[in-house]
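Budget justification aside, the reviewers requested a transparent look at the raw inputs and outputs of the sequence design task funded under Objective 1. We therefore reproduce one unedited record. The lines immediately below are the C-alpha coordinates for a 330-residue chain.
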Protein backbone atom coordinates (compact mmCIF):
# COMPACT_ATOMS: atom_id res chain seq x y z
CA UNK A 1 0.00 0.00 0.00
CA UNK A 2 1.08 3.58 -0.62
CA UNK A 3 -0.43 7.01 -0.09
CA UNK A 4 -0.87 8.51 -3.55
CA UNK A 5 -1.18 12.02 -2.12
CA UNK A 6 2.03 11.78 -0.05
CA UNK A 7 4.38 9.07 -1.33
CA UNK A 8 5.13 10.43 -4.78
CA UNK A 9 8.45 8.67 -5.35
CA UNK A 10 6.91 5.28 -4.60
CA UNK A 11 4.06 6.03 -7.00
CA UNK A 12 6.48 6.86 -9.83
CA UNK A 13 8.49 3.71 -9.08
CA UNK A 14 5.35 1.57 -9.11
CA UNK A 15 4.24 2.89 -12.50
CA UNK A 16 7.74 2.40 -13.96
CA UNK A 17 7.87 -1.19 -12.71
CA UNK A 18 4.35 -2.25 -13.65
CA UNK A 19 4.01 -0.27 -16.91
CA UNK A 20 0.20 -0.36 -16.80
CA UNK A 21 -1.93 0.23 -19.88
CA UNK A 22 -4.59 1.86 -17.68
CA UNK A 23 -4.74 3.23 -14.13
CA UNK A 24 -8.12 3.31 -12.39
CA UNK A 25 -8.03 6.21 -9.93
CA UNK A 26 -10.20 5.54 -6.85
CA UNK A 27 -7.69 6.93 -4.33
CA UNK A 28 -9.87 9.71 -2.94
CA UNK A 29 -11.90 10.52 0.16
CA UNK A 30 -15.26 9.40 -1.18
CA UNK A 31 -18.02 10.93 0.93
CA UNK A 32 -19.71 14.33 0.70
CA UNK A 33 -21.03 14.25 4.30
CA UNK A 34 -17.63 13.38 5.75
CA UNK A 35 -16.07 16.25 3.77
CA UNK A 36 -18.45 18.65 5.58
CA UNK A 37 -17.99 17.26 9.09
CA UNK A 38 -15.52 19.90 10.29
CA UNK A 39 -12.55 21.97 9.14
CA UNK A 40 -10.16 19.06 9.60
CA UNK A 41 -12.24 16.84 7.29
CA UNK A 42 -12.57 19.62 4.70
CA UNK A 43 -8.82 20.22 4.63
CA UNK A 44 -8.04 16.51 4.46
CA UNK A 45 -10.49 16.00 1.60
CA UNK A 46 -8.92 18.77 -0.48
CA UNK A 47 -5.32 17.79 0.33
CA UNK A 48 -5.89 14.10 -0.31
CA UNK A 49 -8.13 14.26 -3.37
CA UNK A 50 -6.61 17.12 -5.33
CA UNK A 51 -3.05 16.33 -4.25
CA UNK A 52 -3.47 12.69 -5.20
CA UNK A 53 -4.88 13.49 -8.64
CA UNK A 54 -2.10 15.95 -9.36
CA UNK A 55 0.52 13.45 -8.16
CA UNK A 56 -0.91 10.78 -10.43
CA UNK A 57 -0.66 13.01 -13.50
CA UNK A 58 2.90 14.02 -12.62
CA UNK A 59 3.86 10.41 -11.96
CA UNK A 60 2.55 9.22 -15.33
CA UNK A 61 4.58 11.99 -17.01
CA UNK A 62 7.78 11.34 -14.99
CA UNK A 63 7.55 7.56 -15.46
CA UNK A 64 7.31 8.01 -19.25
CA UNK A 65 4.60 5.32 -19.33
CA UNK A 66 1.69 6.04 -21.67
CA UNK A 67 -0.96 4.93 -19.18
CA UNK A 68 -4.63 5.77 -19.67
CA UNK A 69 -6.06 7.33 -16.46
CA UNK A 70 -9.66 6.35 -15.63
CA UNK A 71 -10.97 8.56 -12.82
CA UNK A 72 -14.08 8.01 -10.75
CA UNK A 73 -15.78 11.39 -10.60
CA UNK A 74 -19.33 12.30 -9.61
CA UNK A 75 -22.55 13.64 -11.06
CA UNK A 76 -22.26 16.28 -8.35
CA UNK A 77 -19.84 18.29 -10.48
CA UNK A 78 -22.87 19.51 -12.42
CA UNK A 79 -24.72 20.56 -9.28
CA UNK A 80 -28.27 19.65 -8.38
CA UNK A 81 -30.15 22.76 -9.37
CA UNK A 82 -32.81 22.58 -12.05
CA UNK A 83 -30.81 22.92 -15.28
CA UNK A 84 -33.82 23.36 -17.51
CA UNK A 85 -32.76 20.51 -19.78
CA UNK A 86 -30.76 17.35 -20.21
CA UNK A 87 -27.24 17.38 -18.74
CA UNK A 88 -24.85 16.37 -21.53
CA UNK A 89 -21.79 14.20 -21.00
CA UNK A 90 -19.12 16.58 -19.79
CA UNK A 91 -19.23 19.19 -22.53
CA UNK A 92 -21.99 21.62 -23.46
CA UNK A 93 -22.74 23.66 -26.57
CA UNK A 94 -22.84 27.41 -25.88
CA UNK A 95 -23.18 30.61 -27.85
CA UNK A 96 -20.57 33.20 -26.90
CA UNK A 97 -20.85 36.97 -27.32
CA UNK A 98 -20.99 37.86 -30.99
CA UNK A 99 -22.90 34.69 -31.84
CA UNK A 100 -19.83 32.46 -31.73
CA UNK A 101 -20.61 28.80 -31.13
CA UNK A 102 -18.41 26.69 -28.86
CA UNK A 103 -18.41 23.34 -27.06
CA UNK A 104 -16.98 23.84 -23.56
CA UNK A 105 -16.55 21.92 -20.32
CA UNK A 106 -19.88 22.00 -18.49
CA UNK A 107 -19.86 24.67 -15.74
CA UNK A 108 -19.16 23.33 -12.26
CA UNK A 109 -21.60 23.83 -9.40
CA UNK A 110 -20.43 21.70 -6.43
CA UNK A 111 -22.58 21.11 -3.38
CA UNK A 112 -19.89 20.04 -0.90
CA UNK A 113 -16.14 20.12 -0.40
CA UNK A 114 -16.02 16.55 -1.74
CA UNK A 115 -17.83 17.63 -4.92
CA UNK A 116 -15.56 20.68 -5.18
CA UNK A 117 -12.50 18.40 -5.25
CA UNK A 118 -14.01 16.49 -8.16
CA UNK A 119 -14.50 19.80 -9.99
CA UNK A 120 -10.86 20.69 -9.32
CA UNK A 121 -9.86 17.23 -10.55
CA UNK A 122 -11.74 17.92 -13.78
CA UNK A 123 -9.70 21.08 -14.36
CA UNK A 124 -6.46 19.18 -13.69
CA UNK A 125 -7.45 16.59 -16.29
CA UNK A 126 -8.10 19.34 -18.82
CA UNK A 127 -4.72 20.96 -18.15
CA UNK A 128 -2.62 17.80 -18.25
CA UNK A 129 -4.35 16.57 -21.39
CA UNK A 130 -3.69 19.90 -23.11
CA UNK A 131 -0.16 20.37 -21.78
CA UNK A 132 1.22 16.81 -21.74
CA UNK A 133 -1.24 14.89 -23.95
CA UNK A 134 -2.20 12.53 -21.14
CA UNK A 135 -5.02 10.15 -22.04
CA UNK A 136 -7.76 10.57 -19.44
CA UNK A 137 -11.35 9.40 -18.94
CA UNK A 138 -13.51 11.01 -16.23
CA UNK A 139 -16.56 9.08 -15.04
CA UNK A 140 -19.33 11.25 -13.58
CA UNK A 141 -21.01 8.57 -11.49
CA UNK A 142 -24.39 8.59 -9.82
CA UNK A 143 -25.24 7.13 -6.41
CA UNK A 144 -24.19 3.48 -6.20
CA UNK A 145 -26.51 0.84 -4.78
CA UNK A 146 -26.30 -2.93 -4.41
CA UNK A 147 -23.61 -5.03 -2.80
CA UNK A 148 -22.53 -7.64 -5.34
CA UNK A 149 -21.51 -8.12 -8.95
CA UNK A 150 -21.75 -11.50 -10.76
CA UNK A 151 -18.09 -12.00 -9.84
CA UNK A 152 -18.15 -11.08 -6.14
CA UNK A 153 -21.27 -13.09 -5.39
CA UNK A 154 -19.34 -16.29 -6.10
CA UNK A 155 -17.45 -16.12 -2.81
CA UNK A 156 -18.40 -14.42 0.44
CA UNK A 157 -14.84 -13.15 0.88
CA UNK A 158 -15.34 -10.89 -2.16
CA UNK A 159 -18.49 -9.16 -0.87
CA UNK A 160 -18.22 -5.36 -1.05
CA UNK A 161 -18.24 -3.21 2.09
CA UNK A 162 -21.70 -2.01 3.14
CA UNK A 163 -21.90 1.47 4.65
CA UNK A 164 -25.19 2.44 6.28
CA UNK A 165 -24.20 5.42 8.44
CA UNK A 166 -24.98 9.08 7.84
CA UNK A 167 -21.47 9.88 6.59
CA UNK A 168 -20.66 7.05 4.19
CA UNK A 169 -23.92 5.18 3.54
CA UNK A 170 -25.38 5.91 0.11
CA UNK A 171 -29.08 6.73 0.24
CA UNK A 172 -30.64 3.62 -1.33
CA UNK A 173 -28.41 1.14 0.50
CA UNK A 174 -29.17 3.07 3.70
CA UNK A 175 -32.91 2.78 3.06
CA UNK A 176 -32.66 -0.94 2.31
CA UNK A 177 -30.72 -1.54 5.52
CA UNK A 178 -33.23 0.46 7.54
CA UNK A 179 -36.16 -1.37 5.97
CA UNK A 180 -34.65 -4.77 6.67
CA UNK A 181 -33.98 -3.78 10.30
CA UNK A 182 -37.45 -2.33 10.86
CA UNK A 183 -36.08 1.21 11.26
CA UNK A 184 -38.08 4.13 9.80
CA UNK A 185 -36.46 5.47 6.63
CA UNK A 186 -34.50 8.69 7.11
CA UNK A 187 -35.51 11.09 4.31
CA UNK A 188 -33.86 14.50 4.44
CA UNK A 189 -36.08 17.53 3.96
CA UNK A 190 -39.03 16.93 1.62
CA UNK A 191 -37.31 14.09 -0.22
CA UNK A 192 -37.76 16.11 -3.40
CA UNK A 193 -34.09 15.86 -4.32
CA UNK A 194 -33.70 14.07 -7.66
CA UNK A 195 -30.55 11.98 -7.91
CA UNK A 196 -28.91 9.66 -10.42
CA UNK A 197 -28.50 5.99 -9.48
CA UNK A 198 -26.38 3.11 -10.72
CA UNK A 199 -26.07 -0.52 -9.56
CA UNK A 200 -22.60 -1.64 -8.49
CA UNK A 201 -22.59 -4.21 -11.31
CA UNK A 202 -22.96 -1.40 -13.84
CA UNK A 203 -20.19 0.55 -12.10
CA UNK A 204 -17.81 -2.33 -12.76
CA UNK A 205 -19.09 -2.71 -16.32
CA UNK A 206 -18.63 1.00 -17.05
CA UNK A 207 -15.04 0.92 -15.83
CA UNK A 208 -14.39 -2.07 -18.11
CA UNK A 209 -15.93 -0.24 -21.07
CA UNK A 210 -13.83 2.84 -20.33
CA UNK A 211 -10.60 0.85 -20.17
CA UNK A 212 -11.43 -0.83 -23.47
CA UNK A 213 -12.25 2.46 -25.20
CA UNK A 214 -9.47 4.90 -24.25
CA UNK A 215 -9.06 8.27 -25.95
CA UNK A 216 -6.22 8.51 -28.43
CA UNK A 217 -3.17 10.64 -27.68
CA UNK A 218 -4.07 14.26 -28.28
CA UNK A 219 -7.82 13.76 -27.92
CA UNK A 220 -9.61 15.78 -25.28
CA UNK A 221 -10.57 14.27 -21.92
CA UNK A 222 -13.29 11.66 -22.42
CA UNK A 223 -16.23 12.16 -20.09
CA UNK A 224 -19.05 9.69 -19.45
CA UNK A 225 -22.14 10.13 -17.30
CA UNK A 226 -22.04 6.85 -15.38
CA UNK A 227 -25.72 6.55 -14.46
CA UNK A 228 -28.64 4.22 -15.10
CA UNK A 229 -31.62 6.41 -14.18
CA UNK A 230 -32.78 9.32 -12.05
CA UNK A 231 -35.35 9.19 -9.23
CA UNK A 232 -36.64 11.48 -6.49
CA UNK A 233 -35.45 10.42 -3.04
CA UNK A 234 -39.01 10.26 -1.67
CA UNK A 235 -40.03 7.97 -4.55
CA UNK A 236 -37.10 5.67 -3.78
CA UNK A 237 -38.13 5.68 -0.12
CA UNK A 238 -41.68 4.69 -1.10
CA UNK A 239 -40.35 1.74 -3.12
CA UNK A 240 -38.49 0.45 -0.08
CA UNK A 241 -41.29 1.25 2.38
CA UNK A 242 -43.87 -0.57 0.25
CA UNK A 243 -41.64 -3.65 0.18
CA UNK A 244 -40.64 -3.68 3.85
CA UNK A 245 -43.62 -2.08 5.59
CA UNK A 246 -41.56 0.47 7.53
CA UNK A 247 -42.53 4.10 7.97
CA UNK A 248 -40.90 7.04 6.22
CA UNK A 249 -39.60 9.82 8.50
CA UNK A 250 -38.93 13.28 7.09
CA UNK A 251 -35.94 14.74 8.95
CA UNK A 252 -34.46 18.24 8.91
CA UNK A 253 -32.00 18.36 6.03
CA UNK A 254 -28.34 18.46 7.17
CA UNK A 255 -27.33 19.60 3.67
CA UNK A 256 -27.38 23.05 2.09
CA UNK A 257 -29.31 22.22 -1.07
CA UNK A 258 -32.53 22.90 -2.94
CA UNK A 259 -35.54 21.19 -1.39
CA UNK A 260 -36.74 20.09 -4.84
CA UNK A 261 -34.87 19.73 -8.13
CA UNK A 262 -35.19 18.14 -11.55
CA UNK A 263 -32.41 16.02 -13.05
CA UNK A 264 -32.34 14.82 -16.65
CA UNK A 265 -29.05 13.15 -17.57
CA UNK A 266 -27.64 11.77 -20.81
CA UNK A 267 -25.94 8.37 -20.66
CA UNK A 268 -25.97 7.65 -24.38
CA UNK A 269 -22.21 7.13 -24.70
CA UNK A 270 -22.07 4.11 -22.40
CA UNK A 271 -25.29 2.68 -23.86
CA UNK A 272 -23.83 2.97 -27.37
CA UNK A 273 -20.79 0.99 -26.19
CA UNK A 274 -22.86 -1.91 -24.87
CA UNK A 275 -24.13 -0.96 -21.41
CA UNK A 276 -27.65 -2.24 -20.68
CA UNK A 277 -28.36 -0.34 -17.44
CA UNK A 278 -29.82 -2.10 -14.41
CA UNK A 279 -32.69 -0.01 -13.04
CA UNK A 280 -34.24 0.07 -9.58
CA UNK A 281 -36.16 -3.15 -9.13
CA UNK A 282 -37.67 -4.57 -5.95
CA UNK A 283 -36.40 -8.03 -6.90
CA UNK A 284 -32.82 -6.73 -6.83
CA UNK A 285 -33.44 -5.22 -3.40
CA UNK A 286 -33.62 -8.77 -2.01
CA UNK A 287 -29.90 -9.28 -2.60
CA UNK A 288 -29.07 -6.28 -0.41
CA UNK A 289 -31.62 -7.32 2.22
CA UNK A 290 -30.04 -10.77 2.46
CA UNK A 291 -26.65 -9.21 3.20
CA UNK A 292 -28.22 -6.96 5.84
CA UNK A 293 -29.99 -9.85 7.56
CA UNK A 294 -26.83 -11.92 7.63
CA UNK A 295 -24.72 -9.18 9.22
CA UNK A 296 -27.31 -7.21 11.18
CA UNK A 297 -25.60 -8.07 14.45
CA UNK A 298 -22.85 -5.66 13.38
CA UNK A 299 -25.23 -2.70 13.00
CA UNK A 300 -24.85 0.21 15.39
CA UNK A 301 -28.19 2.07 15.23
CA UNK A 302 -26.69 5.23 16.73
CA UNK A 303 -24.76 5.72 13.47
CA UNK A 304 -27.86 5.90 11.25
CA UNK A 305 -28.86 9.54 11.73
CA UNK A 306 -26.82 12.30 10.03
CA UNK A 307 -23.71 13.41 11.90
CA UNK A 308 -22.30 15.98 9.47
CA UNK A 309 -23.95 19.32 8.78
CA UNK A 310 -23.21 21.69 5.93
CA UNK A 311 -23.19 24.87 8.03
CA UNK A 312 -24.20 26.25 11.42
CA UNK A 313 -27.78 26.90 10.35
CA UNK A 314 -28.21 23.29 9.24
CA UNK A 315 -26.68 22.05 12.48
CA UNK A 316 -29.12 24.14 14.49
CA UNK A 317 -32.09 22.83 12.50
CA UNK A 318 -30.93 19.26 13.13
CA UNK A 319 -30.16 19.77 16.82
CA UNK A 320 -33.27 17.83 17.89
CA UNK A 321 -32.09 14.62 16.21
CA UNK A 322 -31.19 12.02 18.83
CA UNK A 323 -28.99 9.15 17.56
CA UNK A 324 -29.89 7.03 20.60
CA UNK A 325 -33.58 7.19 19.64
CA UNK A 326 -33.11 4.80 16.70
CA UNK A 327 -34.17 1.27 17.67
CA UNK A 328 -33.84 -1.93 15.70
CA UNK A 329 -36.84 -4.25 15.58
CA UNK A 330 -35.85 -7.87 15.94
Amino acid sequence: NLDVAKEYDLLVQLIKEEKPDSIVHFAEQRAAPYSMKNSKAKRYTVDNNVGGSNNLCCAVIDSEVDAHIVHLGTMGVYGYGTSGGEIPEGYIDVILPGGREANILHPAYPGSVYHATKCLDALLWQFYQKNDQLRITDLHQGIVWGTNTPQTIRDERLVNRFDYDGDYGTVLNRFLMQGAMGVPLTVYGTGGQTRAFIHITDTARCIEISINNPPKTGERVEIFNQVAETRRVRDVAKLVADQTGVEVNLLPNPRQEAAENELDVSNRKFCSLGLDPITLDAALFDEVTEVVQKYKHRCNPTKILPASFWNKKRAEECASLDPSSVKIKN
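The CA atoms of residues 90 and 153 lie 33 Å apart. The radius of gyration is 20 Å. Computational costs for records of this kind are itemized in the attached budget.
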